[in-house]
Each structure stands twice: as C-alpha cells, then as structure tokens.
Amino acid sequence: MFIRYEVADKVATITLNRPEVANAQNPELLDELDQAWTRAAADEEVSVIVLRGEGKHFSSGHDLRGGGKWPDKITLEMIYTTEARRYLEYSLRWRNVPKPSIAAVQGRCISGGLLLCWPCDLIVASEDALFSDPVVLMGIGGVEYHGHTWELGPRKAKEILFTGRPVTAREAEQVGMVNKVVPREQLDAETSELARHIATMPPFGLRQAKRAVNQTLDIQGFYAAIQSVFDVHQTGHGNALSHTGMPILAHLAEMKEKLK
After folding, report:
1. What is the dihedral of CA 136, 140, 144, 150, to 10 degrees?
2. Alpha carbon of 3 to those of 80, 206, 237, 257: distances in Å?
3. pLDDT, tens digit, 9 for 90 and up, residues 31-50
4. Nearest CA among 55, 102, 127 for reference residue 196
5. Cα(104)–Cα(181) distance, rounded to whole angstroms?
6. Domain at 149, CATH number
7. How far apart are CA 108 and CA 20, in angstroms?
8. What is the count of structural domains for the chain?
9. What is the pLDDT of residue 252?
10. How far is residue 177's CA from residue 88's CA, in Å, rounded to a whole number?
11. Which of 37, 115, 212, 235 makes the best surface tag, with the fewest CB within 10 Å?
12. CB-CB contact of 66 with 123 (8 Å)
C-alpha cells in the first residue's frame, strides 16, 4: 500500500506513503490515490480532504527509475494513453471533487508533484517547500497538468520553466499559489486546524462556493487550456523518443535519487 487513508472530525487525510523514494509516483501509487479521492468524495461523513506526503518531501514527481514497467519498444501512443489517464484525467477529477481540499506541502514538490497539489483548493506550505518543473531539460514545455499560468501568472510561469529553478514557499505565497507558509514542525497541525474549521461550514455552501470559483476559471478558459496544452506536451515526448528512444533523461532520474 502506497497510500494511507484516515478520517477524523469530518476530515479525510490522504497520505502519500513512499518516503524512501521521496514519494515518487509509480502507477500503483497514483491508482491508489485516485481510489482514496473517490472514497472521500463518496463518504457523507467527510466534509474536507487533506493531501499530505510522509517524510522529508511532498513528492519528487513521476518515478523515473523502476517505478513503471515500459515495454522494450515505446511508442508515443503508449505514452499518450497512459498519461492521459493517470496524469491529466486523475488531476482534473481531483480538482472537481465537490468538497474542499487542502494540500500540505513540505520539501520538494517537483514536476509530477504539482499534479497532486495544484488540483487542491488550498495549499499550506512549510518554509522549506520548493516547487519546480525542470522538464524543459527533457525538451518538454511543462508537466502534463499545465496549471503554471493560472497558478503563478504568465511571467513567473515562464521564469520557472525557462530556468528550471524552484520557486520558494514565500514566492509562491506572494503570487497566490500558496495560501499560507508555516514552520515545518507546524505544517500538519496548521493544516489540520484549517481543515477542521472549514469542516464546520455547511457542506452545500462549500460545494457551491467551490463550484462558483471553478466554473469562473473554466469560463476564462482553464479547462480548455489544460486539455490543449496536454497535446502540446506530448510533442515533447515525441521529440525525446526521436533522439533517445526513451521519454525521460537519465540525469533527471539521478537528480531525484539525491532526494532520498
């Protein structure tokens, strides 16, 4: 089991539980995570969902080394089909769960890690949290769920993509991507307190408030942009395949090894 699921005080806490690999996402973890979101959405005793990561880091993103079994011959069609389901569709489904959700982020949140925290309605980050998406190094213009422009604004989004450098928790707070920054030792307590407070609000009112904000973003083009940029993302995989025969680069995997 790569996911822990607990319910208390009307709050469902979903914990990524692969700390030995910085909560890197293999297919099993993502499938279990989707099942946990579905379970929380259906439970009438749950009013708020909290997503957190066990250990030093929230998530180092997709598991690039031994986390997924690809056949010897990889095609763009295989990559597209797999990523459409586990990355794009999962993230959009979590975003639209009709209950408030909060991500508690500590340490590194790299590329695929953004697919986990960005669909949440609120983000509480520890002071040591770093958010990054260095996939331009792979010849790809950004991770599959391309929320960058909406979360960071266009210029900051371009900066982190062009340079590959991480955004600090304080920077993320300044541009509105993070709601609150707290000391590392207070992250779980502060997130739990916020979740329990929200859980005292009328569930239907919370549902309607979330729907109003999400629909406003969709009217502005969020949903269509996420879908269209996903197709652009796949051309990056096609480029990588044409040069290397693989959709990933070894040095990115090596970078993640250092986070263990």
Report:
1. 60
2. 25, 26, 29, 21
3. 999 999 999 999 999 999 99
4. 102
5. 10
6. 3.90.226.10
7. 14
8. 1
9. 54
10. 20
11. 212
12. no
- Return the structure tokens found at 84: 């459409």
- Look-up: residue for tokens 């729907």? 211
Q: In what order do the strands lie in the sheet with 48-53?
A: 3-8, 11-16, 48-53, 101-105, 122-126, 180-182
Can you give the length of the chain in residues? 260
**3-class SS of residue 56:** coil
* Domain containing residue 90: 3-257
Quick one: tokens of 15?
């914990």
**130-132 and 167-168 as β-strands: parallel, antiparallel, unpaired?**
antiparallel
What is the C-alpha separation between 168 and 174, in angstroms, rounded?
10
CA 100 to chain centre: 16
Residues near 52 by Cβ (< 8 Å), separated by ≥ 6? 13, 14, 15, 16, 58, 103, 104, 188, 191
Range list of β-strands (E), the chain: 3-8, 11-16, 48-53, 101-105, 108-110, 122-126, 130-132, 167-168, 180-182
Residue type, 222: F
Region for residue 116 given its phi and psi (left: phi exceeds 0; alpha: psi -120 to 50; beta: otherwise): alpha
Ranges 9-18, 77-86, 106-115, 190-199: which has the least confidence: 77-86
Q: What is the pLDDT of residues 234-253, one digit of tens each?
A: 887 777 777 655 545 554 55
